[in-house]
Design a protein that fits this description.
The chain is α/β, with parallel strands linked by helices. It has one domain: Rossmann fold, CATH 3.40.50. The protein is 42% helix and 15% strand. It has helices spanning 21-32, 46-54, 72-83, 106-134, 156-176, 197-201, 203-212, 225-232; strands at 12-16, 36-41, 59-63, 88-91, 138-143, 181-188, 243-246. Strands 3-2-1-4-5-6-7 form a seven-stranded parallel sheet, with helices on both faces. Strand 2, helix 2 (46-54) and strand 3 (59-63) form a beta-alpha-beta unit. It is globular and about 50 Å long. The chain starts with 11 loop residues before the first strand and ends in a 7-residue tail after the last strand.
Amino acid sequence: MILNAFDLTGKVAIVTGCDTGLGQGMAVGLAQAGCDIVGINIVEPSETIAKVAATGRQFLSLKADVSNIELLPQLIAQAVAHFGHVDILVNNAGIIRREDAINFSEKDWDDVMNINIKSVFFMSQTVAKQFIAQGNGGKIINIASMLSYQGGIRVPSYTASKSAVMGLTRLLANEWAGQKINVNAIAPGYMATNNTAALRADDERNAAILERIPAGRWGVPDDMMGPVVFLASAASDYVNGYTIAVDGGWLAR
């Protein structure tokens, strides 16, 4: 039965930045599909741990800043020591800094690029080595953005990093598909999370955004569950290097 292809029972998924928002939604969705979860965060993700526990799955919490790439092999080793294997990586951790391009600082450039693209590459590399050692392939899911497609304003390093995520997703898919490692991405649209609280509180901006979204609403973390489970599962075994927009139709406009 085709629904069996979406079953992730027995799989282990690493999800970075899953303490709130979209990362939390994806971690819980993967757990509902049968995954045990390894959460890597800079804070203890207490709410996410409770939500995953409610599904009956295990949650291993690792505290680390993924922009410190020297820590990555140790983190993966801890995950493997605990669960015996890893099968899925969701590179969700990310930050944004807002300032006019004319005034944008080197620090704000480097901080965003280190988290949003440098850590994505080196985390993917580290996990891919583990997948190859295990011999069963695996799934890598990167989190892109509407600004992987568009320029935006006042977020130069974020736009650069998320454009790079889409390109890197394609390159890694090209190199690793032969190892049965699928690398794909999800590009969320305008989502109701902590990062967009100021936009939603601005009546004029909120109205302009909603007018552009054919679905007529902001996305919510639960909207990420179906796409991430699909890309993490056997149902997507012949999907490589693609970025799925989860945007309520924003790009269609």
